[in-house]
Amino acid sequence: MKKLRIVFMGTPEFAVGILDTIIKNNYEVVGVITAADKPAGRGQKIKYSAVKEYAVANDLKLLQPTSLKDESFLAELKSLNANLQVVVAFRMLPEVVWKMPSLGTFNLHASLLPNYRGAAPINWAIINGETKTGVTTFFIDDKIDTGAMIISKEISISENENAGELHDRLMVLGSETVTETLSLIANEKAVTTIQKDTNEIKTAYKLDKENCKIDFSKTGEEIHNLVRGLSPYPSSWCTIKDGNEQWNVKIYEAIYNKEEHLEIIGTVITTKKILKIAVANGFIEVINLQFPAKKRMNTSELLNGITLSIDAKAL
Question: Residue 122: which domain range?
Answer without folding.
Answer: 5-186
